[in-house]
Amino acid sequence: MQHITLTFDNGPDPEVTPAVLDILHKRGIKSTFFVVGRQLAACRAPAERAHAEGHWIGNHTWSHSIPFRDRGDIDFIQSEIDRTQDEIGTLSHPDRLFRPYGGKGRLDGSLNTEAVMHLAKGRYTCVVWNAVPGDFDNHNGWVETALPQVATIGWPLVVLHDVHKQAMQHLDRFLGQLQNSGVTFEQNFPPNCIAMCRGHETELLGRGVVAS
Ligand SMILES: [Zn+2]
């Protein structure tokens, strides 16, 4: 591991997102916040701050409730993707970043054929992940899971969540250990975590991401 990319999903949260932004600022790290549309509608200020501070804002569905493997109709897809993109508005990254909801880090079937067609039409860039240390379940022990996990990956793209206050109290310790080990933080995404690039399907998409 030489490079590592951080992403924060499921926010924004009025309390936790600003605390995460403070830590990233202190450490000079830029990341991406994949926001949930209905959260953003309720609490926009932290996303505006993140954007102003050079972080990227991506789309992480409107309701974060049902993976596309379990509900694939076009009305649902449109409301999950487009409604969130409208809410993001001018905060959007130019490549229209989208991250599907897989359910506890599950990647297979996080998209379906209809969703892929819809993302292609909208020229979205679909960003998945390769490291899920489970901060959502293990609020106090995720750093001890994350450090050995990322050490085995050439270029880890880590999914964390700026919604659990307790879990994010360990963020600074995690980043400090990584910085001490000489890792470089990279805002860009590892190519093997891109399932669609500005509407074009990549090789990754064929490997189980799309529900059959
Ligand atoms: Zn999520």
What integer is the average pLDDT? 96
CATH topology: TIM Barrel
β-strand percent reads 15-25%
What is the β-strand count?
Answer: 9
Tally of distinct domains: 1
Question: What does this molecule look like?
Answer:
The protein has 212 residues and is α/β, with parallel strands linked by helices. The protein has a single domain (3-211), classed as Glycoside hydrolase/deacetylase (TIM Barrel, Alpha-Beta Barrel), CATH 3.20.20.370. Helices cover 35% and strands 16% of the residues. It has helices at residues 16-27, 37-42, 45-52, 74-88, 113-121, 142-151, 165-168, 171-180; strands at residues 3-9, 32-35, 56-59, 97-98, 125-127, 157-161, 184-185, 194-197, 200-201. Strands 1, 2, 3, 6 and 7 form a five-stranded parallel sheet that branches. Strands 4-5-8-9 form a four-stranded mixed sheet, with helices on one face. Helix 5 links the parallel strand 4 (97-98) and strand 5 (125-127). It is globular, with a radius of gyration of 16 Å. The termini are far apart. The model has no long low-confidence stretch (mean pLDDT 96). Bound molecules: zinc ion. The site of zinc ion (ZN) has 5 residues, from loops. Residues 9-10, 60, 64, 101 line the site of zinc ion (ZN).
Provide key terms for this protein.
212 residues; alpha/beta; TIM Barrel; 5-stranded parallel sheet; 4-stranded mixed sheet; globular; binds zinc ion
Per-chain topology:
Elements: E1 3-9, H1 16-27, E2 32-35, H2 37-42, H3 45-52, E3 56-59, H4 74-88, E4 97-98, H5 113-121, E5 125-127, H6 142-151, E6 157-161, H7 165-168, H8 171-180, E7 184-185, E8 194-197, E9 200-201
Helix pairs in contact: 1-8, 4-5
The protein binds zinc ion (ZN).
The site of zinc ion has 5 residues, from loops.
